[in-house]
Amino acid sequence: MSQRKILLKESEIPRFWYNIIPDMPTPPEPPLNPQTKQPAGPDDLAPIFPMGLIEQEVSTQREIPIPEEILDIYALWRPTPLHRALNLEKHLGTPARIYYKNESVSPAGSHKPNTAVAQAYYNKKEGVRRLTTETGAGQWGSALAMAGALIGLEITVYMVKVSYGQKPYRRVLMETWGASVIPSPSDKTNAGRQILQQNPDSPGSLGIAISEAIEDAATHDDTKYSLGSVLNHVLLHQTIIGLEVKKQLEITGDYPDVVIGCVGGGSNFAGIAFPFARDKINGRDVRLLAVEPAACPTLTKGEYTYDFGDTGKLTPLLKMYTLGHDFVPPAIHAGGLRYHGDAPLLCRLYSDGIIEATAYHQREVFEAAVTFARTEGIIPAPETAHAVKAAIDEALKAKEEGKERVILFNLSGHGHFDMAAYESYLAGKLEDYAYPEEAIKQSLNKLKQEIGL
């Protein structure tokens, strides 16, 4: 009998996070103060982030030790299993060996607690009472709500309005852990009120929700802001995924030909791919494939330039592939991937050719998700179903070429709260959205006029 799960002991949880910055071929561009266009320093970030996280954001240390208190909470669900997708391989008739890292086993059902717990810890350590954040599909908001309950912080979540309606039980999950959940755009902040004045029926976006959460934090002395993706320290915390995978693959004797992850802001992709990116930078032959929705094609169709991380222009300017901070993506069910930009570290690596990217429409993504559910038993979240689709395509390509290939992807979350999306797909009602070229063009043109870079 072939081994389906490769497991590690709790004592084998990595004791450090991996910081890719020292190994990058091209140093990442610094965030800029939007007023002066000069590099943003710690003082620019201090109103919304604790110093412990600011230090990680700018660190050039390759390995950042994980505090024991965080490791103790990680042990509630880590190490997560690495699965060999034997049933899927058989169904596809492929010579490829398919592995997936199952981050859906965390209490919140996704990879997000890896950074939520860390961020809550460093904020609590510096005397913060409350954290604000945004969430799209609700995975990040759920994770931070759980972390707040475990560490003792109040949590306020601004949830993208379209997801708030599509995923009511995500809201209930967050409220069960004690968080307050507000549909965004809301009338609670200036940023939200301005959006509602322009478009009372706005479905919201992650960029809008970020603006509301930052404004809330910046106007309350006892509150800081917490971000679930994009920033360096968030990607850093997620590398525990790839570090575990490396230990697990050593047990099998395999090494991936391709590492796959879905990309909205970049945290789960970076989490599994960055430890392998270090190998690629040092000459190892491995492909790193980022997968995004065709309705919000940041890497594949965006422009590499400085932009705000939010719609309300409250963040520093970040050098990234962007569709423009004003761009509001179509209301696809992969709410966690509806972000106009991507993590600057990921974008720098994509620009340098270390990372590849592809985009899919949501119907073909759900077709792959159903195939995975009917073979491996796990119903994936719409976000991570993009990675499932890419893995299946890679496996079929191996079949066509008659070549063995090792495929690794990150199953970043389950779809138990996404039944409305699956219901629409199974009923034949799920729509694909055409690439919104004109809307993106308008957004980028406006960006060039505003930024002047």
Task: Walk me through the structure.
With 453 residues, the protein is α/β, with parallel strands linked by helices. The mean pLDDT is 93. It has a domain at 5-10 and 67-109 and 233-451: Rossmann fold (3-Layer(aba) Sandwich). The chain has 19 helices and 15 strands.
Q: Average pLDDT across residues?
A: 93
Number of helices in the DSSP assignment: 19
- Which class best fits the helix and strand makeup? alpha/beta
The shape, in one word, is: globular
Q: Give the biggest sheet.
A: 7 strands, mixed
| Fraction in helix | 40-55%
Q: Which band does the percent of strand residues land in?
A: 15-25%
- At CATH's second level, what is the architecture of the domain at 5-10 and 67-109 and 233-451? 3-Layer(aba) Sandwich
Number of strands: 15
CATH topology of the domain at 5-10 and 67-109 and 233-451: Rossmann fold
Describe the strand arrangement of the main beta sheet, using strand numbers.
1-4-5-15-10-11-14
Would you spell out the secondary-structure blueprint of this structure?
Layout: E1 5-6, E2 16-18, H1 42-45, H2 51-58, E3 63-65, H3 68-74, E4 82-84, H4 86-92, E5 97-102, H5 113-125, E6 130-135, H6 139-151, E7 154-160, H7 161-166, H8 168-176, E8 180-184, H9 190-198, H10 206-218, E9 223-225, H11 232-238, H12 240-252, E10 258-262, H13 267-281, E11 287-293, H14 298-301, E12 303-308, E13 317-322, H15 344-351, E14 356-360, H16 362-376, H17 382-401, E15 406-411, H18 419-426, H19 437-451
Parallel strand pairs: 5-15, 6-7, 6-9, 7-8, 10-11, 10-15, 11-14
Antiparallel strand pairs: 1-4, 2-3, 4-5, 12-13
